[in-house]
Prior knowledge:
The complex is a heterodimer.
Chain A: H1 2-12, H2 15-51, E1 58-65, H3 71-80, E2 88-89, E3 93-96, E4 106-111, E5 117-122, E6 125-130, H4 132-135, E7 142-144, E8 157-161, E9 172-177, E10 180-190, E11 205-209, H5 210-215, E12 235-237, E13 246-248, E14 258-265, H6 272-284, E15 292-294, H7 302-308, H8 310-336, H9 338-350, H10 355-388, H11 395-422
Parallel strand pairs in A: 6-11, 8-10
Antiparallel strand pairs in A: 1-14, 1-15, 2-14, 3-6, 4-5, 7-10, 8-11, 9-10, 12-13
Helix pairs in contact in A: 1-10, 2-8, 2-10, 2-11, 10-11
Chain B: E1 2-11, E2 19-29, E3 34-38, H1 45-52, E4 60-65, E5 68-69, H2 75-85, E6 86-90, H3 101-110, H4 120-130, H5 146-158, E7 164-168, H6 176-191, E8 195-199, H7 203-206, E9 211-216, E10 219-224, H8 228-232
Helix pairs in contact in B: 3-4, 3-5, 4-5, 5-6
Amino acid sequence: MKLIFLIKSLLASRKRFIVLISASFVLTAVLLNVSIAMCEEYYARMSYIERNRYTDTMERIYIKSYSPLTDEYVDKILADVGLEKNRRNSPEPGDIPLESSSFEDKKSAYKFMDGMVYDGYFSNIYLCKYSEEYSSFIDTAVSGEIPDKDKNYDGYIPVIAGYGSGLNIGSEIKSNYYGTKTVFKVVGKYSDDSLEAYFSAQPNMIYTDEEIMYKAGLELRPEDQPVLTPSPEKEQIVGEDGSITIISSDEEEEVIPYLKGYYISRPEEMTPAEFRARIEYLTENEIYGALVRANNPPIKGRVYFENLYIFTIMSFPMFLMIFIIGTLGVVGNLIVNADSNISNMAVFRLCGAKVKTICLLTAVGEAALTLPALAVSLLICLLIGLVFGFAAISVLSSVITTAVVLTITLVMIGVRLVSVIKDRRKLI
Amino acid sequence: MIELAGVDKYYNYKMDTQVHALKNINLTIEDGEFVAVIGVSGSGKSTLLHIIGCLDTPTNGKFILGEYETAKYDENTLSEIRNEEIGFVLQNFGLLPDKTVYENISYPLLFNPAVKYKMLRKLIKKAADDMLIGDLLHKKVSELSGGQKQRTALARAIVNRPDVILADEPTAALDKKTAFEIMDVFERLNEAGKTIIIVTHDRNIAARCKRVIELADGEIVRDSKKGAAKLQQ
């Protein structure tokens, strides 16, 4: 009780100073928190892209074959042109025959992160069956669950809904999937289109692991698929990106070869020109009896992200600078006020205060400046988030802000304690 | 009883800038004495007061305050001794100007573990009333006159009921009339049994003390128990 009285007495006399310093600290801590929260997503995505060996160029190619397109077969094709080490994905989008009409004629506005809005009617939902390799790409930017191929789902196929699909977690899509009554249930959803945009230009997409489809008996594994009889001279390609339908021109002898779209990223050791040359070699030469075709232009990669987050990246150093200036101001003020602190402590010593009590008072006095300010700043960030729906705070940002403020507090306490101990014999 | 035996005090000991502030001081002050320490500036009076007040330690020699031989104790114990045994009154008052009279008087009690929080108000009020500032308790020190400030310092000095009161030029910042009023207070405290040691360069103030010790160049050059009249000459 006596200690509280003493601390209250110490702080009360510095009311104006404390209000000023605390306000400055609150502002700087809010700014730091906001800047970290804003940049966190960018850095997470960039780190993800780096980790997964995305570069600034990705190409989309189609490989057609009369034999099932197994991973080994595709690996062999790519290895022959020196692209075996790069990242590739085969999302395989396919139209789902809807059983109910609940998604037909439904007007939806699809908003993308870069501000593009697509306003239109969709009567189809496209299912993307992703491979195991692709599944490693969906570990960020998805809220909710990611379909687990080892888990037993009772009576439904778990899917991730695309950012622009208009579907929410828990939504069900009843479909007559190749003659089988199937329920697709949304268990996760892309929280934005930034990563999804790598793989699909379609907004009305749902995604699931191909293994789940195989287990449910809705798809045949590549190795179980029959080898088709080639008749290249009768074929024509219908459809563009996202479509895999190949219809023979000869109506009597309809042959549907296997066709898969692949996203190929530029290997880091390869220049964009070299990469482009390899892709062109593939597209211009029908090797392995397969037609290989590429779309143009290459889809957006890292540059796309950098442009998307340009304002975030620019704001970070600005906020950081304000934070540093604010902190310097706070520390500067404390140094300026050091004399008053020394006189207080000299009076206390005269009155019989022990050095350890003086140190405790000093530490509590400094912490009383910064810690409530930290709590207030975090609260303000939460309120900003609630009121404006803007991600002003995250776990990481609050942890970093707390760590930074605690470090500053410890430095301030340290400086004060050194001065108290050094000047402990000083008299008024 | 206060006893100093062969006390030397050096500043910057064994350095080029070494100062020998006190030289072989042998002094005994009995309980209840009223002592003035006089001397010119730099004669060592304040250093002597700091050693008696356990704010500083002798370089050589022995200093005993009551039952404590101070050399045997660490800094924290000396703080406890200072808190219980000594009250200070300083020339510049030694108060915190932006705090109230109540707060300033409370500090020795706050650092005294024997005093409970609920006793504070009563003890502070009594000390303030004794010094005739009972109605100023909630005023800030910065709003007080010089005399009121020194009375506040006196109230703080006595609030913990110490046996010894040390005053370093307590009247130097006051006008003559107020200075004599403050000396009346010291006399009253001495009559109540407190040991009073006043450092001053004002011979009129020293004349009101029962014993005068004169220092020159760090040495005691005169110790007169009834020398007030002689000193005035």
